[in-house]
Design goal:
This protein is mostly helical. Helices cover 79% and strands 0% of the residues.
């Protein structure tokens, strides 16, 4: 058996072990009958609002992506939306956020643009997302905080430091992207020189890929275009915040609307754990946020986390599987596409 074949089962086993450990941590010392009762008595009107915001966030995300793709070529909203849903569906059923690489490759099948360039816009999206989340968190910490920090000063201080670090990292990433986007051929020329001194086809291949990637960062080089993309990010994340807030209200958890900015920041950390569908990481981050800062009972926090996760993943999963099936792409095909993209 080759090393590459052995690597996949081992990696899968590690991911599943991490997911299982997080689920155990999430459900520790919780009465599941009380959790079921909390879910059964959740206010349906607020759950409906949360479900609608989940679909609306996919629409806004697709519109923003369509705008970021313009330097590469004109992509239709329909194709951007389908690729977004397929990508999120793949991340739900495959580990290591595989949907992030499947999404641009799926789009490239239907649009006249390179998958590498489209992938660069995904990286740019993540930087814009991080900047937006940090700004929302800072607005809560320094403007809207209704005394939540007093509930757990240590955790609140740690959150401030984490937010400052994320802001610095996002700005640094934008600077690097600006440098790369300024002259897409620069990296290719560097690698050509390397190829001349070290005879290697790999250097030329890396150079060509890097050039396509740099072209995908075209929006960074134009402050106006980058500013519009950043503006698109605020309605996106405010919609996500509204969905989390609505779920909290449905479970009678006393979270102000701006308090959902804290939950978002914690969830960004939770979903960074590369389990399929962010299982475990999302749940525990939501539970910790609502119990630590907003005094939610464990049973209500666990029930709300389960429903919030279901709404955050469900619509994209169902739509993504539908669009993938229409394109003749099944689960095995998604996994092969993810491996090829890597």
């Amino acid at each position: 058996m080759s090393i590459s074949l052995m690597r996949t089962p081992i990696r899968t086993a590690i991911v599943l072990a991490v997911a299982a450990a997080l689920v155990v941590l999430f459900l520790r010392n919780v009465d599941l009958r009380h959790v079921a009762s909390e879910i059964a008595h959740a206010r349906m009107r607020w759950l409906t609002i949360s479900f609608v915001t989940a679909i609306l966030s996919l629409v806004i995300r697709s519109l923003r992506w369509q705008y970021l793709l313009e330097p590469l070529g004109r992509a239709t909203f329909a194709n951007a939306f389908r690729a977004t849903c397929v990508g999120f569906a793949a991340s739900t059923i495959l580990p290591a956020r595989a949907g992030e690489v499947i999404r641009p490759y799926f789009l490239a099948r239907h649009e006249n643009m390179t998958a590498t360039g489209a992938f660069a816009t995904i990286i740019l999206e993540r930087v814009l997302d991080m900047l937006t989340v940090v700004v929302l968190l800072a607005s809560f910490l320094f403007v809207f905080d209704p005394g939540v920090g007093a509930a757990n000063p240590t955790a609140f201080t740690a959150m401030k430091w984490a937010g400052a670090t994320a802001l610095a990292g996002s700005i640094a990433a934008l600077v690097v992207m600006f440098f790369l986007a300024g002259d897409p051929g620069r990296v290719a020329r560097w690698m050509t020189r390397v190829e001349q001194t070290m005879p290697s086809k790999l250097a030329g291949l890396i150079g060509r890929v890097a050039e396509k990637f740099s072209r995908g960062l075209g929006a960074v080089r134009h402050p106006g275009r980058l500013g519009v993309a950043l503006l698109w990010s605020f309605p996106l994340w405010l919609t996500i915040a509204a969905g989390l807030w609505a779920v909290s209200v449905a479970f009678h958890i006393n979270v102000p609307f701006t308090g959902s900015f804290v939950l978002i920041a914690l969830l960004v950390i939770g979903v960074a754990v590369p389990t399929p569908g962010a299982i475990g990481g999302f749940h525990e981050a939501f539970r910790v946020g609502t119990t630590t800062f907003f005094g939610a009972p464990d049973s209500a926090a666990v029930g709300a986390a389960i429903i919030a996760h279901l709404f955050s993943q469900g619509p994209a999963l169902l739509l993504g599987l539908l669009f993938a099936a229409q394109a003749g792409l099944n689960f095995s095909g998604m996994r092969r596409l993810a491996e090829e993209a890597k």
